[in-house]
Amino acid sequence: MGSYNEQIGSANKTGLTGKMRTVSRWKLILSTFTIALMIVPTSYMLTFAYYAFGTKSTTLMDTASKVLYLTEPNTALEEMEFEMEFSLFSMDLSFDQYKQIGSELYPVRHYDLHFVLDNLVDKKMTSNLDRTPPKYPTQTNQWLVHPAQGMPEFNSGHDWQVLAGLPDETVVEAYLSFNDLYKVIDVRKEFPGIDVVWAAIYTGTEDEMLSADGDVVSPLGYPVQPDRTYWSPFRDSMSHEETFLQLLKELQPYEELAAEVSSHKNLKLQERIEFIEQNGFTAYGAVITGPKQEVEALKDSQMIRHMKLGEVKLWN
């Protein structure tokens, strides 16, 4: 009898142990599931905190904005056009780029940038431009040419002929390369009836468009006209020259990212900053816009060596 009771007790204990194991297993499953559910929102919160409170989103937007103003002639960005979307450890940044043709601003490019943390991993750019600058500049395909360089790949005489054949009711954008280096204030005096919208600044590398280590460099410059656009780094600037130099210094810690955002892949900021600080600001070219007839009248200017026609619009 005693042996029988012991067997019954042992069986009960075994059953109880089995039930406890089952309950423990389900607790483990539920705990794991709960933790997994918490990881996703927590990760999103950490992502948001990384971009929002760590100022990463502002840094990324600032870098994208500044480098486009300095490397893409005659362009502007609108602050309200920036769109940000956050996903797991990543951010999507979208915005439009504008050009001034005549007195109007026209949307000419749309950018979609995908960042994983602070690394740009994907860039898509759609263009509305009728005349697209080379995506990857070389020594000879620049649209703004230093006076020491040889003949560019474009035919300046042909572009003057195209300009002459346009209807009088058009406004145009033109890239002017000078026969010497000039102060921007003197350039504006030479073209009093024309909007000089962007100046290409000599940084010691544009003679051959090569840096000290032999890399093809991008043109650098700044908008000349007063800029009231809220997002513009030149808004309320007392000296666009000094603002330009300051922006180069601010971009330097993010030079790799800046080069990825821009279509120009070699900025070489350190040596170019040092050159400007030692030699000051002179322009070897400029971008202008205005009525077709007034731009055409500049053909006989002794200052102009080459002209590359940019965008053309009907006069609004």
UniProtKB/TrEMBL annotation:
One Pfam family from the record: Sigma_reg_N
Domain Sigma factor regulator C-terminal: 163-311
Superkingdom classification of source: Bacteria
Keyword annotations of the record: Membrane, Transmembrane, Transmembrane helix
UniProt entry tagged with the keyword Transmembrane helix: yes
Transmembrane segments annotated in the record for this chain: 28-53
Sigma factor regulator N-terminal domain location: 20-104
Name of the protein this chain belongs to: Sigma factor regulator N-terminal
